[in-house]
Amino acid sequence: MEISSKENTHFFSNNTILPVDRSSFKSESSASKEKQSCCGGIKIFLGALSFVYFAKALSGSYLKSTITQIERRFDIPSSLVGVIDGSFEIGNLLIIILVSYFGAKLHRPRIIGAGCLIMSAGTFLIAMPQFFMGRYRYERFPSTINSTVSISPCLQDKSQTPFSALEKSHAKINAGCEKEAGSSMWIYVLLGNLLRGIGETPIQPLGITYIDDYAIEENAALYIGCVQTVAIIGPIFGFLLGSLCAKLYVDIGFVDLDSITITHKDAQWVGAWWLGYLIAGAISVLAGIPFWFLPKHLPKPESRKDSSTSSEQSKFITEDHKEQNKSYQQQVKIAEMAKGKSLEFFPSANLFGNPVYILYLCASIIQFNSLIGMVTYKPKYIEQQYGQTSSKTNFVIGLINIPAVAFGIFSGGLIMKKFRINVLGAAKLSLGSSFFGYLLLLSLFAMGCENSEVAGLTVSYHGTKWTTDYEQALFSECNSGCLCSKNDWDPICGENGVTYISACLAGCQASSGSGKNTVFFNCSCVGTLESPSRSSSAVVGPCQKGNECPKMFLYFLVVSVITSYTLSVGGTPGYILLLRCIKPHLKSFALGIYTLAIRVLAGIPAPVYFGVAIDTTCLKWGSKRCGGRGACRLYDSSALRYVYLGLTLVLGTVSIFFSVAVLWVLRKRSSPQDETLSANGERGTCGTKSRKDNFVNSDHLIQTAYWPEKETRL
Question: What is the architecture, at CATH level 2, of domain 39-140+183-300?
Fold first, then answer.
């Protein structure tokens, strides 16, 4: 009865006119239904949002895993692949302001559902070129393509080639030129990734705020933590999916796989990159369906309706009657904001007078340049440096590196909470994490492999290493009688362990077998390395790297995992440092500027200039069928190591200097009295609230901290 009377009082306070004898029953029944609806509704939304986070993280990481596949399929350089990768951030920036401003006023679940559809459409669009640009053609000598005509690799005279074979060859070239327009279809990949960025935009801001608005206050942080945890699981499956698709031939289902003469270890191999995008797009469609059936508003839990609770919003509402006038107050606030918008913006510009914020912003921008570039081209680096296949590379990253990142993020938040670290301590932890992480990265310079021995590129035809003009060195006395093209890339492995760019340049006079089992004989250049008087044989495909390379790869994996964990530990403390050194009324503005700066100054340019730098280390460029430079076939391992790791370390070192400056400013601002207050539970250095309030809020922030693309930071 006590509960009933209390509910009746609340019922009548809302000016509801109903018979007294029925109001008690109805209010009790409605309260019970409201509680069930609230709990059930928010949990359904939580499950749906978690699935969406999984879907967007999976598709984003899958794109990273297909960087080299896209490069080979469309015959484009790494710099152009970097532009494609950065288009996601461009799409995100196009509508982030509109979504952030208008999204909360509209039907949030349906906007998220629409975002999922746009994201899936972009993912499907990325895969579409595969169905319109014809079958993939790789460079192979005719005798290795199950030809019944015996043709000498060393064509001393064109008359040796039967007319039918030449005619077929020319027909293929002409057909290739007709399809050459298909090489520009990488634009559709770029547009698809742009659409992915647009579709992903409303998911985080609208999804997180919806949970925060309608979840029970003590459960909000837990729910958001669950969403972020699932988001970190997504990239694991993304890279594993990339590993699986990289093993399948690009035209699987369209050609006879027995006729394919290259393996997944070949530099010309392209996996079924498009298949993963179809799967990721389908998952995005499924993830968006539940949001179309969720309500615009959920019943708020009773704990948030009771003014006696200490919710964050209730601190600004001290009178019970304000709840009844909530709609009117919101209208007044909107009017006041509209009138004073121009006046409020300029005081917000005082944010740029905060040295801690500016210095930390600079440190973050430079560090994210380092991390984004490193992560984007990490699969390529592993493939080229250690001779690993795309499939194995993606498997290793997905199964080893990403769990290390997730554990590092969790450890950073746990350390902050366990030791109740203040602002100064957070700055030290963030700096220490970066310093030791990049110090470990320095050791990777010693864990590289030597260049593969490729005759005419890295070694001479007499077995000596050189650094002269590579193009002129492709021809030697041993193949002077052959009509060879320097643009071909059809590597064979001589029995002396040296790779030759083609059977023609190896001086091979005869061959037997077909397809992957082709063996070349009487190769005059192969014999010159050991015994000039003896001709030797060679098999299809490049030779494996040196015996020390597998051991170096193992060392690389160990150091890479430790480095990933160490760098990730500092992510949460750094973000908490950012939030605690900003005045409360400037916090939203500061986070918006921070996110915008990271995306514009790091997310977009980093993949591009990292790609340009990596392109400078190419030793052998592929050629398109109708002329023009294609994708790189062979990189200088030593130069690639110094460029890739060197650029990452230089940027990381500069960011450390800015982090040291942040720590110096904080120490200068702090005083013994501040430290005493901090030790006694009061907030020090940068804030005005109590330490108790800080750590209540920081638990929530640790779960919800936005670290751009943190799911793929390796």
Answer: Up-down Bundle (1.20)
